[in-house]
Amino acid sequence: MPGLYSSLYRVLLFPRKFYEYNADNEIVHYSPYNGEVLPGYMFTDNGFWDTFRAVFPFFTLMYPDLNSKIMQGLVNTYKESGWLPEWASPGHRDCMIGSNSASLIADSYLKGIRGYDVETLYEAILKNTEGKGPVTSVGRFGAEYYNELGYIPYDVGIRENTARTLEYGYADYCIAELAKELGKPKEEIELFEKRAQNYKNVFDPETKLMRGKNEDGTFQSPFNPYKWGDAFTEGNSWHYTWSVFHDVEGLAQLMGGHDDFTAMLDSVFEVPPIFDNSYYGFTIHEIREMQIVNMGNYAHGNQPVQHMIYLYNYAGQPWKTQQHIREVLTKLYQPTPDGYCGDEDNGQTSAWYVFSALGFYPVCPGTPEYVIGTPLFEKVKMELPTGNTLTISASGADENHYIQSADFQGKNLNTSYLHHDELLQGGTLKFEMGEVPNKIYGSHPKVSHFQ
Which of 158, 302, 399, 444 falls 20 to 30 Å from 65 in CA-CA distance? Predict the structure, then answer.
C-alpha cells in the first residue's frame, strides 16, 4: 500500500494558488480572463469533473479556510469572465463535461463554510443552466435540449450526451439544496428538484442501464453497454449507470428494487473486462487499466465508477461494500512503479484512498452524509479544524475487513452513514472487525438521501 500520507500529499497538490502579495501586503492576482491585475484570490489547475467527488469534500471537512478562499476565487472568476470555471488551466479550458461547480459551491455552503459572496455564486450557477459558455465545458453544452426534453438526445450531434444528462441532473439537485438554504422562491426550488429526476429519462428498463436516447424518445440502437465514450465520458454504460448520487433509492426502484439493484452492482464485477473502443478509434489508457485490474468492468482508474462500491449500503448489504473496498485498497494501490491504478486527476484517485482508508466516503457531495465502508487501519487520529480530535479505532482491521459492530461518541451506530456536523465534534468512532460478514449491522440503512 502506498500509505495514507503519500495519498494525502497528492490530494493537496491541486488546485494551485494563482495569487500573490503586492508591495502593500495585499492579495492580488493576474486574471487569465481579462489580462488585468486585480485584488483577491484566484486558483488554477483543477478539473471539477474529477475533484467534486472526493477532493473538495475533503477540503470542506479538513481545510475549510482553504475551501473558503477557493470559493472567493470562483467569485472572481465569474466577475472577470462571466462564467464559473469547470477546468481552469489557468483560463477556461475546453475539457471534460458537466457543471460540477454547483456541487463544490453547494457542498461548501451547506456544510457551514462562509467568507465569500454566495449570492454571486448562486447567480453564476443559474447562468450555467441556461447554455454553454466560451467553450463547451463551461456552462451547459446542450442546455436547450436538457431544459426542454429533460435529457440531451443521442442523435443531435452533442457528444457524451447521456453523461451530460446525468451530471446536470445531479448538479440540479445541488442547486435545489442550496436554493433551500438561501431561501429562494418555492417555484425555483421545485424546478431544480424536478430536473434532478431527469436521470430517469435515460434509464432503459430493458437492460437496467443508462442508455442514449434519441430526440424522438426512442433509445439508441444498436446499444453496446461496453462501448466507451459516445454517449458517455471516458467510460461506458456499466460505469455511468451509477451516476445518480442524489437519489440512489430512486435508481434502485427503477431497477426493480433492492435485490435487482444489488444484482446489477454485482454484475459490474462479474461481467468480463471487455470493451468497445470504436468511438475513440484506439484503446485509451483508462480502458487498458481496467483490463489489467481484472475486476470485471469495474474501472477504478477513472472517476465515474469510483463511488459505486459504496452503493451496496443503500440496499442493506454493506458487507459487499466492505469486501470490495478492502480489495481495491490493497490491490490497486501499491508502492511500486506500476502500483497506481490510473490517472491521479488532480488528487481524486488519492482522495478516494484517503477517505476509504479512514472508513467512510462522501458518495453525494451536497449532503452532510458520509457512507461507511471499512477502515484500513487499527487506529487513526484526526486533528479537526474545530480543534477537536476524531479517533477512529478498528481493532483487528489489519487482518479483517468485515464490520461486526460500531459505535460513535459512546452510542451504538446502527446506520450506514456518518453526519458531517457530528464528525466535527470529534470523539471516538469505534469499529469491531471480524473474519466473516455480519449481515445484521447496517442492513437497514437510515440516511436522508437514501430514502
Answer: 302
